[in-house]
Predict the structure.
Amino acid sequence: MYKILCSTGALLGKTKDRDYKLLKDLSQQLTCDGFEFMMYSSWYDEVEALIGRLKEMQLCIPVMHCEKHLGEAISKGEFDEAYRKFDINCHIAREAGAESIVVHLWDGITSDAHFENNINAYSQLKDIADQYGVKIWIENVVCNQEDPMKHWCELYRQFPDIQFVFDTKMASFHSQMELLYEQEYQWLWKDKHIAHYHINDYGGQYKEWDKLRSLPIGQGNIDFDKFFAFINQIGYRGTFTVESTAFDRNGVINIDMLNQQFTFIRNAID
């Protein structure tokens, strides 16, 4: 049975100081099946307090999103720091009840400029995740040198059991949504290498950096009718995470918009 999750990153903006304690009240207003909990760099000094509060709130968190800057550290060759922080992220994931952790293997301004660093780091990251009993999923993060599908293929050649997260916005940014439907890449879904989907719309053209925002379904250019027809065709019934930014510059959260996203996906699948 599929599950529709809400990214906590869609809810916790800087205007609210990324206050994870708000999740308890917000969770009671949302019609999702659970959450993808996103870690932020500002929380490393309060890890045990964070874990304690998550347990107290008793949220359903099947998936955790690793803190994004780790990918940038790996790209720069700062491996020891990246592994140290990834260990902390996996600890939080296990304690929060998450079965899987989403990773930006490359990130930031450096992005994939030194992809040899990113591909070399994967084995160590997987070993750490395995120690915590957490599955590691690599996202198709945007690139400033090559493209995510090229990097996925290289990772697959070296690590045949690897699993991925397909983000619709990231794919559309690189004009790679259509690749998902092509026979050349059917190994991605036929052999279950895509283990999870991030659902966001994208309102720009190819690599239009100033348009790289997580929009609600229907506010961008992605053909979600075609996407979900494909999802039904291949029989995928795993997890989806809605990432559409729900807070405005004043910190007001659009609960109705998020609930409409969850309803749209349920109707598209059912």
About this structure: The longest helix spans residues 79-96. The mean pLDDT is 96. The chain is about 40% helix and 15% strand.
